[in-house]
Structures are given as structure tokens and as C-alpha cells.
């Protein structure tokens, strides 16, 4: 078993819902083999102990923060105590993995519900959780594939490329010499899922009650449960990857790794490995002779096609999921490698229609029509239309000062992002659907990444043609 090689793509994950699709592939029907403390997971004892311990220690930190608030010059002590409390909670979610780490990731998407520091800490759960010992991973792979590891792979690296909330990834080599990446689900997740979701629901309900939003948490949690259940099916993720690859087949600058079907089950996903460098590694990109401007243009074309044309998009475009393929001819024909399709969204037709109507209302500065659409999406709590209307009206005015929706440049769109987040946090009664927040966050990530790669490229201008076609083509 050889050590991990540099520049290998490291899959990460975030909560997401894959689309309904075609027939399932082969999958093991055997129940997972649990060892040690894993046997406690289906009963909930381990989860309650970890969460309870973190809550107890965090409550001490919060008490210290309250005391420090009353003392002269206690601001630094208060802030440090609050940060410790957040770290304890995030650490507990990361240790438990699965539904609990996903719950933290959901909270990171809900920028309307948490302070900025907490959102940043929770976002780390997408790709920084403790890995599982290799022997447990070996057992999962052998159970799923129904054969010894050495019979399926000529080489399988014991050190993981990365560990995320539901799985960790390892480099391997097929008997024919081809390099692959194997994503392996943690063994207890399927067995403990129902229990995990019941406990997660209690945590979620407690939090929303504390935030005085308990009456509206049921649909959001239902959506969360559907996403977690779907994401535990790696065959579904494989179908999403294949569909996005097909949708983007007319874009030569995009590469989606091929799934190795006979080495993929509901809990093991094997995809072809491509040598690649991080999309933000300027030294390596320079070595390849690739112009950052070309990469920004590829991203703009690929994401605008997914979001505005296809309605199915890879919704986690952070640098850990996007790479530049290291291959001959990269300078003249660069390709961006997309990995990890655990977070992919297919926009509901109703949401697509309301997005179109919302853009039209924004272009026409028709605030009442815009608010009507928000109410149809259940984004305004009863009795709060007037207050939400005042806040949204101020955003309308800011957009007008930039020349209007379609006249804005990419930098101007990004300049409004912080104002939009503040509006979500500070406006009582405004609660956007999670899918809509994820849609907006994906576009924000793409624009931010484009600006970091090539500040002189106007990402909005590149996205405009697909946006206009989206507006002109009703579903």
C-alpha cells in the first residue's frame, strides 16, 4: 500500500439532494458489520453521550461569556468563550459524522439563522472530520464488493485523501493499472440513520425554539432528512455525476470522472482518478501554462449552463472540489475537473418559475409582484409582508443605483452579497427556502472564485446569455 500522492483531488461533501433517476446498480444487501462502540450507534447511546458532553462544556463557556459581558474590558474573554462554545458543538458534530455533521452543514447554509463566526466554523464540517482507521474501511469495501480488497484492486492506499461527513476517499489502482479514487461510506451510518435523525430532530427543534422559530422548522427538517437519506446512496450520486457529465458534454473545458460501475454500490463509489492541481494553486497552474482567465470562463459557462439551462447543478464549487487537469496540451485546452456530486440540486419547476417571475419583477421594479412571489414560496411569515417589503425595497434601490439587474457587473453582484446576507439575518419574518439559498450561494461561490482567479473577467457578462435564454424559455 503506497502513500497518497500530491495534487490528488480530495472529495468533500455537503448536504444535498440528488435527482430521481434510473435503475439502481448492484449493491450489497448484507447489514453492515459493526464493532466496538459502533454497536451503540443504532440505540443512540453514543450520540447522546457525545452531544450531552459537548452541551455541558459549551454551557460553561456561555456562562463565562455572560459574566465577562458584565465586566469592564471583558470583551476579549467573552469572545474567546463564545468561540470555544462553537468549537465544542462543531467538534461533537464532526466526531459523530453522518446526519449530525450534515445538520451542521445545513446550519452553515442558513445564513439567516446564525452569526458569521458560527457559519464559518460549521462550514468546515464539509471536508474536515476525523478519518476512520483503514481496517474499518477495508471491511466496508470487502463487504460491499463481496471479495477481498486485493481481488478488486491491485493497490489501495491506506492513508485517506480526505474524510468528510459520510465517507472518506482513498486512492487505489485497478488490476489493469488504471488509477481510481474510492469513496467509502462509514459502516454504521445506514444502521443508525433512523436513530440519528430522531436525535438530530430533537437538536434542531431545540435550536429553532431557542431562536423563536419553532413553528416553521418541520418542512425544513423534512427536506434535510430526504437529503441525508438520498446522499447515503452512492449509486444515486453516480447517476447524478453521469447526468451532469452528459449535460455538459458540449463544454470541452469540463471533465467529470467516469464511474467504475462494477466497483460501485450504495456504500462504495469508485471513480477514475485524473492527475490534477488545485484550481487556486497559481504556481502549479503557471507550470501547466494555463491562463487563469480561461479557467474563470470555463466556470462561468459550466455553471450558468447547469443553473439556467439544465436545472441540475453541482452545488459546492469550492476549491476542494474543482481542479485543473494536469495533462499534455493543458495550456492550449485547459480542463476543469469537477468532483464530489454529493451536493447536487435539481431545482423544482415551481422554484424555477418563481425565480423567472422574480427576475422579471426585479427588472420592472415591481415590488408588490416580487413580494407576491415570495409569499407563494412561503418565504414571508404571516403578518410580516410590510416589514419584509421595506427591507427588499432597499435592496431594489441598491440594484437600481448599479444600473439594474442585467446591467450589473460581476464585481457589483459580489458587492451586494454581504448586504443580502445582512438582510436575511436582520429582517424578521423573512425565511427563504433552503434550495433557493443554496442556488444563490452556488452562484456567489462561482463569482467569488472567478474574481480570485481573474479579477479582469466579468463573470456576470459571461453568464448573461444563458440567463436571458432562461428568462425567455418558460418551463
Report on the architecture of this protein.
With 475 residues, the protein is α+β, with helices and mostly antiparallel strands. The chain has two domains: 1-273, no CATH class; 276-475, no CATH class. Helices cover 53% and strands 9% of the residues. The protein contains 18 helices and eleven strands. Strand 2 and strand 3 form a beta hairpin. The protein is globular, with a radius of gyration of 23 Å.
Helix/strand structural class: alpha+beta
C-alpha termini separation: 52 Å
What's the average pLDDT?
82
Low-confidence stretches are 1-29
Count of structural domains: 2
Secondary-structure element order, N to C: HHHHHHEEEEHHHEEEHHEEEEHHHHHHH
**What's the helical proportion of residues?**
40-55%
Radius of gyration, taken over Cα atoms and rounded to an integer in Å = 23 Å
Query: What proportion strand?
Result: 5-15%
Largest sheet: 5 strands, antiparallel
Number of helix segments?
A: 18
Label the overall shape: globular
Q: What does the secondary structure layout of this molecule look like, with pairings?
A:
Elements: H1 45-69, H2 75-96, H3 98-109, H4 116-123, H5 134-145, H6 149-152, E1 155-156, E2 162-163, E3 167-173, E4 179-185, H7 189-210, H8 217-231, H9 234-247, E5 254-255, E6 268-272, E7 276-278, H10 282-288, H11 292-310, E8 312-314, E9 322-325, E10 336-338, E11 344-346, H12 349-363, H13 367-376, H14 385-401, H15 410-415, H16 417-426, H17 434-453, H18 459-472
Parallel strand pairs: 5-10
Antiparallel strand pairs: 1-3, 2-3, 3-4, 4-6, 7-9, 8-11, 9-10
Helix pairs in contact: 1-2, 2-3, 2-4, 3-4, 3-7, 7-8, 11-17, 11-18, 12-13, 13-14
Amino acid at each position: 500500500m503506497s502513500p497518497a500522492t500530491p495534487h490528488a483531488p480530495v472529495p468533500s461533501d455537503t448536504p444535498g439532494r440528488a435527482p430521481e433517476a434510473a435503475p439502481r446498480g448492484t449493491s450489497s444487501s448484507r447489514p453492515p458489520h459493526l464493532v466496538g462502540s459502533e454497536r451503540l450507534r443504532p440505540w443512540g447511546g453514543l450520540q447522546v453521550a457525545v452531544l450531552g458532553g459537548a452541551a455541558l462544556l459549551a454551557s460553561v463557556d456561555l456562562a463565562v461569556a455572560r459574566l465577562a459581558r458584565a465586566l469592564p474590558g471583558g470583551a476579549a474573554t467573552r469572545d474567546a468563550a463564545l468561540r470555544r462554545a462553537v468549537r465544542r458543538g462543531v467538534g461533537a458534530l464532526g466526531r459523530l459524522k453522518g446526519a449530525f455533521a450534515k445538520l451542521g452543514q445545513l446550519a452553515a447554509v442558513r445564513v439567516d439563522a446564525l452569526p458569521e463566526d458560527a457559519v464559518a466554523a460549521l462550514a468546515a464540517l464539509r471536508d474536515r472530520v476525523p478519518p476512520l482507521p483503514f481496517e474499518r474501511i477495508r471491511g466496508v469495501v470487502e463487504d460491499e464488493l463481496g471479495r477481498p480488497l486485493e481481488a478488486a484492486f491491485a493497490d489501495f492506499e491506506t492513508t485517506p485523501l480526505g474524510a468528510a461527513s459520510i465517507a472518506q476517499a482513498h486512492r487505489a489502482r485497478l488490476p489493469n493499472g488504471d488509477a481510481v479514487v474510492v469513496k467509502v461510506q462509514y459502516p454504521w451510518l445506514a444502521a443508525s440513520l433512523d436513530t440519528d435523525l430522531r436525535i438530530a430532530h430533537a437538536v434542531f427543534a431545540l435550536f429553532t425554539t431557542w431562536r423563536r422559530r419553532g413553528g416553521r422548522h418541520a418542512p425544513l427538517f423534512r427536506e434535510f432528512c430526504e437529503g441525508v437519506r438520498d446522499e447515503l446512496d452512492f449509486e444515486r450520486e453516480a447517476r447524478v455525476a453521469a447526468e451532469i457529465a452528459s449535460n455538459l458534454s458540449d463544454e470541452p473545458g469540463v471533465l467529470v470522472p467516469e464511474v467504475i460501475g462494477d466497483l460501485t454500490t450504495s456504500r462504495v463509489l469508485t471513480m477514475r482518478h485524473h492527475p490534477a492541481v488545485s484550481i487556486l494553486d497559481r504556481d502549479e497552474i503557471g507550470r501547466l501554462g494555463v491562463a487563469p482567465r480561461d479557467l474563470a470562463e470555463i466556470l462561468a459557462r459550466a455553471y450558468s449552463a447547469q443553473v439556467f439551462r439544465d436545472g441540475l447543478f453541482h452545488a459546492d464549487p469550492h476549491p476542494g472540489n474543482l481542479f485543473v487537469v494536469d495533462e499534455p496540451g493543458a495550456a492550449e485546452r485547459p480542463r476543469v475537473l469537477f468532483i464530489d456530486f454529493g451536493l447536487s440540486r435539481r431545482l423544482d419547476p415551481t422554484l424555477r418559475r418563481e425565480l423567472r417571475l422574480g427576475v422579471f419583477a426585479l427588472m420592472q421594479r415591481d415590488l408588490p409582484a416580487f413580494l407576491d412571489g415570495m409569499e407563494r414560496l412561503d418565504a414571508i411569515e404571516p403578518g410580516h409582508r410590510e416589514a419584509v417589503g421595506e427591507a427588499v425595497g432597499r435592496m431594489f434601490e441598491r440594484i437600481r443605483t448599479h444600473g439594474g439587474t442585467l446591467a450589473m457587473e460581476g464585481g457589483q453582484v459580489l458587492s451586494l452579497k454581504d448586504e443580502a446576507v445582512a438582510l436575511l439575518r436582520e429582517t424578521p419574518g423573512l425565511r427563504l427556502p433552503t434550495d433557493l439559498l443554496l442556488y444563490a450561494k452556488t452562484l456567489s461561490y462561482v463569482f467569488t472564485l472567478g474574481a480570485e482567479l481573474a479579477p479582469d473577467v466579468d463573470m456576470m457578462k459571461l453568464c448573461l446569455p444563458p440567463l436571458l435564454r432562461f428568462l425567455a424559455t418558460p418551463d
